[in-house]
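Example record

One chain of 234 residues, shown exactly as stored in the release files.
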Amino acid sequence: MNWDLVFTANNLRRLLVGDFPPVLGGLALTLTLAILGIVASTVIGFAVGYARFAGNRPVRWLAAGYVEFLRNVPLLILIFWAYFVPPYFGFSPSKFGSVLVALVLFNAAYIAEVLRGGLLSVPAGQIEAARAIGMSQAQQVLYVVLPIAAYNVIPALTGRYITLVKNTSLAFLIGLAELTEIGRQINNRLLTAPIEVYALLLGAYFILNCSLSFGMRRFEDRGRFNRSFCFFAR
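Predicted structure tokens for this chain:
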């Protein structure tokens, strides 16, 4: 095994931050993609999921069309479209922007269906009780329907978030210098340590996703979840 060839200061620095400065890459870029992708896809997914559940008929049709289209195309093809198609219309997107847009749109479609399942699980009695005490429609949604639905779908959301983090590795196919691309560059330069390089990448993604799973699992405690959600809902 040639671990000494892999564990050099330059290789580890590149795996962590790429060629920063001036260009951020490596694990730092993967984390940036993952965090922005999780936040944006959750917001869009919740909006689309609620529109599909409670919108009027045209809105439900539009939401359903979005979900069915995005769930039935490969993410890799979507990344290629986000990167190669805009130049035909006079706009040249960055590699980072193309990957982020593809990740967000793709995962938002799945999160929308996850939320719709959560909304369908909300007991009708809870909604009737909220209506009986004089809550407005917006208050019912914000303080009753969404908290119950969001709590019910935490395990499914965790799975989607982990998948999103793993899917950031597809960015190497258009040359974005995230963790997998930096590992590929190091392997191509060394040529004699593929097992060591890709074992290091495997460990990095494993630790990253285990940390995410552990963090999400903490919100499976209803009291902690309620305190966190009520803080943001005020």
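Notes: The radius of gyration is 21 Å.
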